[in-house]
Amino acid sequence: MLHKKLKPFPEGFFWGASTSAYQVEGAWDEDGKGPSIIDMGSVVPGTTDFKVASDHYHHYQEDVKLFSELGLKAYRFSIAWTRIFPNGDGEVNPKGIEFYSNLIDELKAHNIEPIVTMYHFDLPYALQEKGGWSNRATVDAFVTYSKTLFEAFGDRVKYWLTINEQNMMILHGDAIGTLHVAAENPMKDLYQQNHHMLLAQAKAMVACHEMLPQAKIGPAPNIAAVYPETSKPEDILAASNCTAIRNWLYLDMAVYGRYNNIAWAFLEERDATPDIQEGDMEIMASAKPDFIAFNYYSSQTVAASSGDASDRSSIDGDQQIVIGEAGVYKGATNPNLSKNAFGWEIDPTGFRNTMREIYDRYALPLIVTENGLGAFDKVEDDGSVNDDYRIDFLQKHIDQIRLGISDGVDIFGFCPWSAIDLISTHQGCSKRYGFIHVDREEFDLKELKRSKKKSFHWYNELISRNGN
Ligand code: BG6
Fold first, then answer.
1. Parallel, antiparallel, or unpaired: how do β-strands 329-332 and 322-325 relate?
2. What are the φ/ψ torsions at residue 312 (nearest 5 degrees)?
3. What CA–CA distance (Å, rounded) separates 390 from 375?
4. Is 148:204 a contact under the CB 8 Å cutoff?
5. How do residues 41-79 score in pLDDT, each as one tens digit?
6. How far apart are CA 208 and CA 232, in angstroms?
7. Which residue of 236, 291, 328, 329 has the fewest CB atoms within a 10 Å radius of its CB?
8. Which residue CA neighbors atom 7 of ligand 1 most closely?
9. SS3 for 445?
10. How many domains, the chain?
């Protein structure tokens, strides 16, 4: 749709930026923190581990000051479950509460709204050893953990995100550092884990509303518009399959409290439906999110299934991520899109498509909790980083939000990835995303000095005119 006149970004729009605990904090075993599955997981050869990361744990005051200079209205970060409960459940670690309490105070003092993700990939290792999400007890541990967060920080935190990219943990667990599923029927086990996470999320949303009537809470999946490779009806059907399994399975449950029928049929076909206990679906139905947070990096293109194993083709270049489900859909590349240095397709228009689809389906306010460009930044002799490619990427995506707003989508914030350089999920620290450069290399920590990239000044100026 071409608009003669674009609607402006609303007053009070949350111009923000995002990080996650294990990718930015470091201090992996300090002040009583327990190990997470990330700390105990294998690191991709040639890339750094997460022990020091950007050392935000020791630099948080300096970092928040920089976020304030950047002009951020909101900062989306995650809490490391193992700082609060070193063993996943049991005793609370007061030092963990203290760290996040200080961070939240610091943000508030700078008029930056904290947006808190409760769980971003870093399951406590102690829980993993007891079966992780395959074990229903992990649901209770998550609920206790979430209630502890509401109690400790609910007086200052209004916006809560339950689980980051649950769909990616289920679809691509290997690539993002979650541990392998060892079970007789791995797929059934995987979707049992998924059911437990959905239940944990539902219970946390109910608890949040009971304990903090003023607070708002929502899920934070990675959602992408899925295109058919051609206009062949079979390709369109494949795109519909993929959309259901990749996107709507997660959001239909979070919003409507029901399993998406296409995704459910897919699980039945694979003998992978989860065991649902009495009362589970009532809980799912009673939990109502206040908004939908979503991460968007790219759209996805698929083609009709060939009906055999060739459907599971690794199409994502450097990422080596397998796209496709035998007999359901096959991954395809989109010849209309360019790619970033890591082989990820760049699709700003797909961003508009995605937000329109989500809003059309659920009619809940939206917030973008990740979007950004991973790149090999170059530091010039004078110390500057001229990341025009990042500015270009972000500007094009912000333009699409404005178009989405003009289409009538209710969207209240944009938190690109990432506020500051951090460690990529599985591609090290040379793959940078931040507005703030952190002076470290893969295996040389240097001084971890912070400096402002060109994109920092650009984003600051854009925020100062509310993006309009
Ligand atoms: C999202 C995650 O999937 O993508 C982040 O929520 C992650 O944790 C981001 O860092 C970018 O992916 P990557 O693999 O480049 O770090």
1. antiparallel
2. -90, 70
3. 8
4. no
5. 888 889 999 999 999 999 999 999 999 999 999 999 999
6. 46
7. 236
8. 425
9. coil
10. 1
3-class SS letters over 30-63: CCCCCCEHHHHCCCCCCCCCCCCCCCHHHHHHHH
- What's this model's pTM, rounded to 2 decimal places? 0.97
Asked if residue 9 is part of any domain, the answer here is: no
User: Residue 323: its pLDDT value, please?
Assistant: 83
Atom of ligand 1 nearest to the CA of 168: 3
Q: Is residue 3 part of a domain?
A: no
pLDDT above 70 (res 133): yes
E strand map for 98-175: 113-119, 159-164
Please identify which residue in the block is written with the tokens 């007061």: 94
Residues belonging to the active site: 370
Per-residue confidence at 179, pLDDT binned at 50, 70, 90?
low
Note down the domain range covering 167: 14-464
The yes-or-no verdict on residue 157 having pLDDT over 90 is: yes
Residue 268, pLDDT score = 97
1 is a domain residue: no
Cβ–ligand 1 distance for 113 under 6 Å, the answer no
Q: Residue 6 carries which DSSP code?
A: P
Token couple for 282: 């009532």
Examine residue 397 and state whether it is found in any structural domain, yes or no: yes
**For residue 242, how far is its CA from the centre of ligand 1 (angstroms)?**
21
Query: Side chain identity at 362, as an amino acid letter?
Result: Y
Terminal CA-CA length for the chain? 19
CATH number of the domain to which 187 belongs? 3.20.20.80
DSSP-assigned beta bridge partners for residue 14: 413
Q: Rg of the Cα trace of the chain? A: 21
Cα 457-458-464 angle, rounded to 5 deg: 90
Tell me the CA–centroid distance for residue 276 and ligand 1, in Å: 31
Q: Is the CB of 78 under 6 A from ligand 1?
A: no
3-state secondary structure of 188: helix
